[in-house]
Amino acid sequence: MVPGFRRLFRLSGREPGPAEDIAAEFEAHLQMKADALIRAGRSPDEAWREAEARFGPLERFALECGRIDRTERRERRLREWWSGLLQDLRLAGRGLLRSPGFTVTAVLVLALGIGLNATVFSVLRGVVLRPLALPGSDRVLALHSSNPAAGWPEFSVSPADFLDWSREIRSLRAMVAWVSYDAAATGLGPAEQVPASAVTSGFTEVTGVRPALGRPFVEAEFAPGAPRVVIISHEAWVTRFGGTADVLGKSWILDGENREIVGVMPPGFVFPAARSDAWLPFQMPPDAMSQRGAHYLTVAARLADGATLEQAHTELVTLAARLERDFPRSNSGWTVLLRPLHEEVVREARPTLLLLMNGVWLLLLLASANVANLVLVRAAGRSGEVAVRSALGAGRSRLVRHALSEVMVLVAVGAALALPVALLGTDLIRRLAPPGVPRIDEVRLDSVALFFTLGVTALSAVLVGIVPARRILRADLRRALAGSGGRSVGQHRALHRWLVAAETALALALLAVAGVLLKSKTRLEAVDPGLDPSSTLVASVSLPDKRYPTSESIVRFQGELLAQAEALPGVESASLIFGLPLSGFGWSGSFTIDSVPVPDGVRQSAQVRVVSGKYFTTQRIPVLEGRRFTTEDRRGSRRVVVVSAAAARHFWPGATPIGRYLRFGVRPSDDRPEGEIVGIVGDVREHGLDQEPRPIAYVLADQVAVDEVALLLRTSVAPVSVAPGLRRIVSALDPELPLSGIRTMEDVLRDATAPQRFRVWLMGFFALLAVALAGLGMYAVLSHIVSQRTREMGLRRALGASDRQVRGEVIRSGMRDAALGATVGLGIGWLITRKMSDLLFQVTPGDPVVLAGSAALFLGVALLACWVPARRATRADPGLVLRGE
Amino acid sequence: MAALDLFQGTLDLLVLKALSWEPAHGYAVATWIRERSGDAFLVEEGALYPALHRLERRGAIESEWGLSENNRRAKYYRLTTRGRALLRAEASHWDRYVGAVGRILRAAER
C-alpha cells in the first residue's frame, strides 16, 4: 500500500490528470535549466534553446511518461479496490460473528433455498430435460397404434401393422419393435428373473448404439430356427460374468434355452428408459400377417435424413387409413400416434416435476425476501454508523460495497452449505421417488445444476443486497446523524411491510397447493379397492415355455404349487391370478355373447383375468349373485366364467348375465377364454384407485392355461414369515424356477399411491418450510419495530394506555400485512392448483376447506410471530424507558 | 573520450543512487548524475523522466509537488523502503556484473 503521503495529497484536491502533471514537471525542469544557464551568463533566448536541446524530444518523453502513469493509476486503483474489499469482507465477517443468531438464521435460510433449488433442478434435468443417451436422440420417435373411438388413444402395435409400416414408410430410416418381459436366468447360481427384451432387426439402427464388445445381431438371427444368441448389458456382464473379455461365446440359459453371448452393450445403455439385461432377437410368429388384431409390440423408429416428424406422421396416417379399408375387421378405427421418444419417456413425470419446480422457485423467492428482510432490519439499526462514515469522507461506492459485503459473505456461506443440502436432497429424492419415475437412478447433482445453483446464488445476492444498498444511496445524512441512528426506520416501514406481505403470500400459496394434494391423497387412500389387501403375500411365478410346453404341464405344476402352498403353516388360502390388480399387467379382449356376431363398429370388450378357484376367497372379493368357482370346475369340465359387477351393469343392464355364454377371440383353441357365466363378483379398482372399475371377465386357470402368474397367499400370520417356506416349495418343485417380486398386497396398494404420497411429502415439506420462513420474517420485522418504538410505547403506557391496548396495536399492525398477503397467496395457490387438475383426485382446485384450513394454519403461525414481540413491548418498565434507555 | 551510451537498467540504478541522499526533483537528479560522471554519459535530460515514472510505478520511489530552492513548483521524488532495497540489490548485481566482465577481459589479455 502506498502510505499516507499519497492519500493526503489526494484529499487536498482532485488528482490532476497525468498529462497536465507531466507537462508541469517538464516545464519546471526546463525553467530551472534555463535559470541556471542565465545565471551562467547566457541570454534568456539562448538559455531556453540550450535547455530544450539538452532535454531531447519532449513529446516522445511526455508520451512515454503518460503511458507509464496511466498503467500505474489503473493498477493502484485495482489494488486499493481489492484491499478495500478484503477489508470490508473481514469487517463483515467479524460483524456477522458478533450476531450469531442473525447469521445462522440467514445462512440456513439461504442454504435451504439454494440447495433445494439445485436439488429439484438436478432431478428435473436428469428425468425430464436431459436428452436420451442415444446418438441423434432427437430423431428417434415412439409409435403407437391408436383407436380413440374405442377408448384406446394409445395402444400397442400388432405384428402385421408393424411389418407393413416398416416396409412402406419412406420418411423413417429404421423401425424397431420389442417385447419386454422377465426371463428366468439359470445356470449361474440360484435361478432368478432378469429384465429382458426381444427386439426386431432395426434395434441397432434405431438406437444408433453398437455393443461395446462383440457384435450386433445379424439378419439371419431373426429367422425362425436360427441359432440362439443374446446381447447382454454392461451391468449384467460385470455382475454375472465378472467383466472379462472372454464372455463372448459363453452361454447364458434364459427361460431354459442356451443362448450364446455375442455382444455386451456399453455401460449405462437403456432403451428406451428401463434397464434390460438381455436383448434377444425377436422372431416374428409365422402367422404374423394374419394376426392384425393382436396388439402387443412396442415400437420406435428413427427419422430418415432430412425427414420431419410431420412427414412421418402424414405417411403413417395415410397408410393406416389404407389398412383400415383393406382389413376392416381388424383395423377399423385404428390410426397411428407418434411423438419424440424423449417426450414419451418423460411425459408421466413432467407434471409432478414442474409442480415441484414451481414450489422451490416460490421457496427461493421467499428465502431471498426473508434474508433481505433480516439484512434490512440490521441495516436500519446501523444507519447512524453509515452516516458517520459518510461524514468522514467515505465515498458512496465504498459505502454501498461495505453494505453489500455482509450480504456477499452471507450468500457465499449459504451457497457453500447449499451444496451438501443439494447432495443430500438428490440422494433422498432418488431413494424416495415412487416406482416408475423414468431415469431416476441416473439423477446426479450434475455440473449444469451446479452452475444453475451459482446463477441462483448470484440472483439472490442481487435480490438481497439491492435493498440495503439502495437505502444507503438515498440516506438522509443529517436526519440520521441528528436522530442518533435508528430513527430512520419509520420511513422505511412500508418496505418491511411489503416484504412481510409478499412472504405471507408465497407461503400461503405453497400451503394451499400442499393442502389440495394432501386432501387428494387422503381421498385416494380412502377409496375401497374392492379387495382386502391385509395379510396377503404376493409373488410372481413365470414358467419358461421350453420346459412347460403344454397347457397340461402348466396346469399340473400350478395345481401342485397351490396344494403345497396351502399346506404351509399359517396359510389360509392360496390362489393364482394373471393380471394382478394395480400391478399394471392385464389382458383385454373383445368377446361375443351366445355366439352372436358383434356388428362392425361396436366395441364389446372386457378385461380378462385368469384366476385359480379360490381367488375370490383369498382376496375377499364378495360374490354378489350366482356362485364362485368350485372344485367341480376343472380342466375338461364345462367352461365357466365369472363377471364383475361393472361388466354386468355395462353389458346386461337391468337383466341377469347368469347363463349367458361368453367367448373371447376368434380362433378356437383349448385355452380360449370362454364359458357360461355362473356368478357376479364385486368390482375391483384394479386399474388404479383413481379409475372407475372396468368390466372384468374372470376365467379359470385350469381351463385357460397361462404361464406367467402372480401367486397370492392369505395368511393367519405375518405374510412375509411364510416366504421362506414358499421358496422351499418352489425350489423343490423345480430348482431352475425363479420366484420373484415377493411382497405383500398392501405394498402393491401402497405402490399404486406412491406418486401421490411423494408429491404430498415434498410439497408439504416445502410448505411447512415456507410457513416457518414467513413466520420468522414477520417475527424479525415486528421485533425490530417494537424495539424502535419502545420509548413511544413507554410514554403511552405511562399516560395510561393498558398493556392490552399496546399489545393489540402491535399485533394488529402485523396481522394487517399478513392478511393482505394471505389474500394474494390464496389467489396464487388457486391459480397453481388449477393447472394441476390431472394430479388431483376428487378435489377441486379452489377447495374451500383446504383454502380455509391453509389460511387458518398460516394465520395461527402469524399470530404467534406477532404475539411474542408484542408481549416484549409491554414487558419493559415504562419508568426506565422514559428516563432514557 | 567520447560520450557513453547508457543502458536503461543502468539509468534506473543511477537515479536510485541520486535519490538515496535526499528527495530531489528531476532537474537536480540530472545535474547530480552529470556532475558525478564528469559528463561521461551521452544522455538526453528528458530520458530521465520515463525512468523516474517507471520507478514510481514499481513503487521504488514516490513523488510530491513542492517548491524548489528558487521558489519554483517542482515535483520531488523520494526513495521508498522498497526503493532502498532495490538500490542495494541492483548495486550488488552491478558490482558482480562488472567484476565478472572485468575478470574475463583481464584473463583474455594474458
Could you give the topology of this structure?
The complex is a heterodimer of chains A (885) and B (110).
Chain A lengths: L3 H8 L6 H22 L4 H12 L2 H41 L1 H30 L10 E8 L4 E4 L3 H10 L3 E15 L5 E8 L3 H5 L5 E2 L14 E4 L1 H8 L9 E4 L2 E8 L13 E4 L16 E6 L5 H18 L1 H4 L3 E6 H6 L3 H31 L2 H9 L4 H37 L14 H28 L2 H6 L10 H34 L9 E7 L8 H16 L4 E8 L9 E6 L11 E7 L3 H5 L3 E4 L13 E5 H7 L9 E4 L9 E8 L14 E5 L7 E8 L7 H11 L5 E6 H8 L1 H35 L1 H9 L4 H32 L13 H26 L4 H7 L1
Parallel strand pairs in A: 4-9, 6-8, 15-20, 17-19
Antiparallel strand pairs in A: 1-2, 1-10, 1-11, 3-4, 3-7, 3-10, 5-8, 6-9, 7-8, 12-21, 12-22, 13-15, 13-21, 14-15, 14-18, 16-19, 17-20, 18-19
Chain B lengths: L7 H12 L4 E2 H12 L10 H10 L3 E7 L5 E7 L1 H29 L1
Antiparallel strand pairs in B: 1-3, 2-3
Helix pairs in contact in B: 1-2, 1-3
What does this structure look like?
The complex is a heterodimer of chains A (885) and B (110). With 885 residues, chain A is α+β, with helices and mostly antiparallel strands. Chain A contains 27 helices and 22 strands. A six-stranded mixed beta barrel of chain A has the order 3-4-9-6-8-7. A six-stranded mixed barrel of chain A has the order 14-15-20-17-19-18. The longest helix of chain A is centred in the first third of the chain and has 41 residues, at 58-98. Chain A is globular, with a radius of gyration of 39 Å. The model of chain A is unreliable at 1-14 and 484-491 (pLDDT under 50). By secondary structure, chain B is of the alpha+beta class. In chain B, 57% of the residues lie in helices and 15% in strands. Chain B has four helices and three strands, in the order αβααββα. In chain B, a hairpin with a 5-residue loop joins strand 2 and strand 3 (73-79). In chain B, helix 1 (8-19) packs across helix 2 (26-37) and helix 1 crosses helix 3. The two termini of chain B are 26 Å apart.
SS strand fraction of chain B: 5-15%
Shape of chain A: globular
Would you identify the regions of chain B where 5 or more consecutive residues have pLDDT less than 50? none
Taking Cα atoms only, what radius of gyration of chain A do you get, to the nearest Å? 39 Å
How does the helix and strand content of chain B classify structurally? alpha+beta
Q: How large, in whole angstroms, is the Cα Rg of chain B? A: 16 Å
In which order are the strands of the major sheet of chain B placed? 1-3-2
How far apart lie the N and C ends of chain B? 26 Å
* Secondary structure tally, helices of chain B: 4
Sheet with most strands of chain B: 3 strands, antiparallel
Helix content of chain A: 40-55%
Distance between the termini of chain A: 43 Å
Q: What share of residues are in beta strands of chain A?
A: 15-25%
